[in-house]
Amino acid sequence: MLAIGGVFIAILLVFIELGFFIAVPQGGMLVYDHLRFDLLLCSKNYAFQAEPWQFPRTRLTDAAKAPGISQVTPLFFAGAKWQEPKGGDRLDAFVIGFDPAAKPFAVTDIERQTATLAQPDTVLVDDATRSLFGPLAASTEVLLDNHKVTIGGDYTLGTGFLGMAVAIMNETNFFRLFAPRTADIVNLGLITLTPGTDLETAAATLSKALPDDVQVFTRDGVKHHEDKYWTTRTSVGLIFGSGLIISFIVGIMVLYQTLATQISRHLPQFATLKAIGYGHHYLAAVVMIEAAMIVLVAFVPAAVAALAIYAQLRSATLLPVVLTTQRLIAVLVITLLMSAASAFLSLSNLRRADPADVF
């Protein structure tokens, strides 16, 4: 039971570390996954979604003239201070401006509220916005950068890493709020291709045709960039990657100590098996089976506990920490590797099971 308990903790840590390691880059793609585009145009200084930098809108105009381009849609990002009209803390909020007629968001809640977005000084708020921002019901008035706006409604998407509060508005309201900023500077450009246009060819053509102050991403390219950013340029990769390795090593050492102790305690039995003709490979198989049995017995409660912990993590962090079938299989494979490694390390103790020495 002690061995199973120790391995249970190690497997549960693997679940948690792997969950964070995968969910953080997925959180960076959350908004992109709900945008309509085939190619993404952004600044060459693009870091990640919340820090895309800017580029001239004329780059989108030029891109629209390229063959195979059906539509180009600019997105405008800005940070604002959110405050209730009666006063209180000024909290950081993320604001997105766009043309609702272009339908850049593949979100039903946004598309059905196009008329609401057309109203002066009106915003829609992501329903994942934290409660510390106060009431988010429709018709509620709030201050954004000391400018009074009205919450016209909400939508379900998720804030990802844009911030603890995200609001969207049409271009007219956006530039009224953030004057003297103009529409000549864009944060992101969504490009839709005509049916039948080759994706990679169109991306390469645009990259060559446009100045080097912008870059073109396919959806796969954006995902690769976001994954690389969060796993190599932030502490995410170091912390959760290291945690995953440490959890694996801890599991191996706990199981190794258990197996080594079991072999030592049953050395006469192993020696007897050798004496009556069973070879070293047979005894090694016994140890391997014992290791596999321990980790498989510990795996089931660890998976159940991971389900409960993942639910708490989703609620607390708003990250897409989900126990998918692929993740379950991945942890099972890691667990079996853990048992194989610990069993291999403990096999050296079997060499002491010599009948002449024991008896």
* Biggest sheet features: 6 strands, mixed, barrel
Strand adjacency order, main sheet: 3-4-8-5-7-6
Shape: elongated
Measured on Cα atoms, how large is the radius of gyration?
28 Å
| Count of discrete structural domains | 2
Helix content: 40-55%
Segments where pLDDT lies below 50 for 5+ residues? none
Please characterize this protein's 3D structure.
- The chain has 359 residues and is of the alpha+beta class.
- It has 2 domains: 2-27 and 235-358, no CATH class; 45-211, no CATH class.
- The protein is built from 12 helices and 11 strands.
- It has helices spanning 2-28, 58-64, 108-111, 114-117, 171-177, 199-209, 219-232, 235-265, 267-275, 280-317, 325-346, 355-358, and strands spanning 39-43, 55-56, 69-83, 91-98, 122-126, 141-144, 147-155, 166-170, 185-186, 188-193, 214-218.
- A 6-stranded mixed beta barrel has the order 3-4-8-5-7-6. Strands 2-9 form a two-stranded antiparallel sheet.
- It is elongated.
